[in-house]
């Protein structure tokens, strides 16, 4: 529904939508580090439809310093906006997880984005959301050799529900908090079941997030 997920952000470059993201303060968006490959320059907030909404420029990008490539983990990036966006009935921030907040196996969570609805499809103009279940990390490691540290797995395995290309950077929402950032799935395939979808575990980066926000002027 239109009045839900008001924290969702479309991260865009000069050609349009490249990634999802979510508003964690009036002037900060959290997304995936690999989204920087597409040279994002602005974000669009306050809409479920990509051709509407308010565009705000990105002033500064903060990729996690340990990030090298998606498969190695630390796939997280903060975007400092050029202004504080006003919060209203169209735009809200989402809370981050509390330190030590445990995500349980089979817990029902939500992922959303404007990504493709099928492999090699096209970007959707209106926001889609889907329920996904959290997958045991040992099961996830079995399907992903070399699974990076600090991740959550949910959806994409034993189900036809999960995320797809274009959803990267969007939130995994459990109990109303953004606990994960969409990172990667199986060989860019979205026809499930294949292998669990992998998210960056936000709770492992709270100090990093808070430090940047605290020490950024303006």
From TrEMBL:
Ranges where the Peptidase S1 domain occurs: 1-214
Record's keyword terms, sorted: Disulfide bond, Hydrolase, Protease, Serine protease
Keyword Disulfide bond found: yes
PANTHER family in the record: ARGININE ESTERASE-LIKE-RELATED (PTHR24271:SF87), KALLIKREIN-RELATED (PTHR24271)
GO BP annotations listed: proteolysis
Protein name: Peptidase S1 domain-containing protein
Superkingdom: Eukaryota
A molecular function (GO) term: serine-type endopeptidase activity
């Amino acid at each position: 529904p239109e009045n839900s997920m008001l924290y969702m952000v479309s991260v865009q470059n000069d050609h349009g939508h490249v990634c999802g993201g979510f508003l964690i303060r009036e002037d900060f968006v959290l997304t995936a580090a690999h989204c920087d490959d597409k040279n994002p320059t602005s974000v669009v907030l306050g809409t479920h439809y990509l051709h509407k909404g308010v565009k705000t420029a990105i002033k500064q990008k903060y990729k996690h310093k340990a990030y090298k490539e998606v498969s190695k983990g630390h796939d997280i990036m903060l975007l400092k906006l050029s202004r504080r966006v006003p919060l209203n009935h169209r735009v809200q921030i989402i809370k981050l997880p509390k330190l030590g907040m445990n995500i349980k196996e089979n817990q029902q969570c939500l992922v959303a984005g404007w990504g493709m609805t099928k492999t090699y499809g096209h970007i959707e103009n209106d926001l889609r959301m889907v329920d996904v279940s959290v997958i045991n990390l040992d099961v996830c490691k079995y399907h992903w050799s070399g699974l990076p540290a600090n991740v959550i797995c949910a959806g994409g395995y034993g189900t036809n529900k999960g995320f797809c290309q274009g959803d990267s950077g969007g939130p995994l929402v459990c109990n109303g908090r953004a606990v994960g950032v969409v990172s990667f799935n199986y060989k860019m395939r979205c026809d499930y079941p294949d292998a669990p979808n992998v998210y960056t575990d936000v709770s492992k980066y709270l100090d990093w997030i808070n430090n940047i926000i605290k020490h950024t002027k303006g």
